[in-house]
Fold this sequence. Notes:
By secondary structure, chain A is α/β, with parallel strands linked by helices. Chain A has helices at 56-61, 86-100, 112-123, 148-168, 179-189, 195-205, 231-240, 262-265, 285-288, 290-301, and strands at 16-22, 25-32, 39-43, 66-70, 105-110, 128-134, 206-209, 212-215, 245-250, 273-278. An eight-stranded mixed beta sheet of chain A has the order 1-2-4-3-5-6-9-10, with helices on both faces. Chain A has a two-stranded antiparallel sheet with strand order 7-8.
Amino acid sequence: MTLETRSYPGAERPARSYRHNADGVDIAVYEWGTESNPPLFLVHGGSDFAGTFDVFAPLIAAAGYRVVAWDHRGHGDSEHAPLYGWDADIRDALSVMSATTNKAAPVIAHSKGGALMMQLADSCPYRISAIVNIDGMPSKRRMPDVPDHDQSRLLADSIGSWLDFRHEAAASERKPGTLVDLAQRRGKMNPRLSIEWLEYLVTIGAQQDADGWRWKLDPTMRFGGFGPWRPEWASLRMAALTMPFLGLLGTFDEPMGWGARPRDVLPWIPSSGRLEVLEGIGHFIHIEEPERVSKLILEFLS
Amino acid sequence: MNTVMLQHNKVTLALHNVRPGTGRPLLFLHGLGESAAMMSALAVDWGGPVWALDFTGHGDSSVPAGGGYSSEILMADADIALRHIGEATVVGRGLGAYIAFLIAGARPTLVRGAVLIDGPGLAGGAIHATSNSEITSGGDRTGTTPDPWALIELSRDARPPTYTTTFARLAVSGSGIADPIAVTCKVAPPWVEAIRAEPGVMIDITLQDALDIYAAI
């Protein structure tokens, strides 16, 4: 079997990669830039992996940072854990960060990673010197046109479906396909990203087995669509942050986006922060326009 | 006490048959940091077989590395047990009371009455956002039951009243039972206080009286 590969303009694999034991969970960590430079952490979103920073991270590293990213548990090359949870993701993050430096460092985080880092920044303000949140800010919008009784029915269906899946989770596996198949499947969730980029991502975030390529993302991970978490809690945490804060929002809704609009977010921007709205960009702001976004962020960090 | 080992994804659950019987089974769900063995000492008058489950990371069930617990995962533990024993009445103590309540809403046709009693882990965490301290090691007891990560994470999982009242309504609308939930707890954290005001939730009742009502269904 010949391993298929792809390249992409501007994409650089990390200069260093290693494993980190986060209290029993094996986490894959990656670094770009000179090791003696000041550290900066990049945090990916749900269902993503650190390789999605392969164009963006080198631009940040070139400004004089040791850029450190990791695959969250169950994502990319990190271990498929028995359990997944919001606090567990934050704990893994803190474990990786603590192994890198015991000083406060800047964080750039996308989507779910942004919400995770806002919670970490709130609980451990001594760990984060500045935070950039790329479309990971909460939206309180729900389904305004769905009556309450229908919402209850949808919830019952959602819970039942999730419980049914838990019975089968141990035997679940990802569907194999060609490299192009996987890129096209991901394209449905990332409709604004080029097929060339998505094919490149397949070569990092998927593995080539004898019967085809499979995404490495743990197939037992499935979000229930229900739970006690309320979006306004993230808003409260965001408003409470005391370190410099930059929020970035695009203007195109996407399947993996949070649907937050500037009017949802602006009331909760901390007094130490600001919101930048980038017209004509979707949820993957740093992937669609890496040069523009990295320049904006580096100016903020300076 | 016979024990059946059941698989819940990567975790092996121990489901104990406390005693045999004829009729609908009774399922015991233990409190935070407890075990099925401790719960099995609960004295009740019930004609059917009595089962007791060890939740993930408790008793004879396996311990997942690195935590990641939630009440919803334990609800799925209970669902795995229910698939094995079929329709059952459920008695939950402390944390197990919350899980019994959740599964009554999630599987209203399988749970023929849920009785909630006082015990460890009844309260859970805050009902709104908090600045929880972050811990990166489970300490010397890592890998043993009760799993330190279970104790940490399940003692502070959020239980906002707006979430729990939804499960009460799902239990009422889906079970066909007039009062599918019985709250015998003396302690009333916000989530219990909220569901006590819901239709279909019996209050001011003893454990045995509630079991007698559910046995007659």
